UniProtKB/TrEMBL annotation:
The species this protein was found in: Araneus ventricosus
PROSITE patterns, per database record: SH3
SMART domains (alphabetical): SH3
Membrane spanning stretches: none
Superkingdom of origin organism: Eukaryota
Source taxonomy: Eukaryota, Metazoa, Ecdysozoa, Arthropoda, Chelicerata
Keywords from the named record: SH3 domain
Protein's name in the database: SH3 domain-containing protein
InterPro entries on file: SH3-like_dom_sf (IPR036028), SH3_domain (IPR001452)
SH3 domain ranges (all copies): 1-59
Length: 64
């Protein structure tokens, strides 16, 4: 599933994925009620992302 970042996120926590507004992220795990495990679409960086920071509707919540 591909999601679009609604807001930027910059954290010093190494488990949190940093990104900018508009970045495309691949959701790898959504089992937590508040967080996704995600990675940047063009990079190998991965980490936790607050679910409220992402929009899955752009691609209908499906893989493109």
């Amino acid at each position: 599933v591909i999601a679009i970042a609604l807001y930027p996120l910059q954290s010093t926590n190494r488990f949190i994925l940093n990104f900018e507004k508009g970045d495309e992220l691949i959701i790898e795990d959504g089992s937590d009620p508040d967080w996704y495990m995600a990675r940047h679409i063009n990079e190998e960086r991965r980490g936790f992302v607050p679910k409220s920071y992402l929009n899955l509707d752009r691609f209908g919540g499906e893989e493109r």
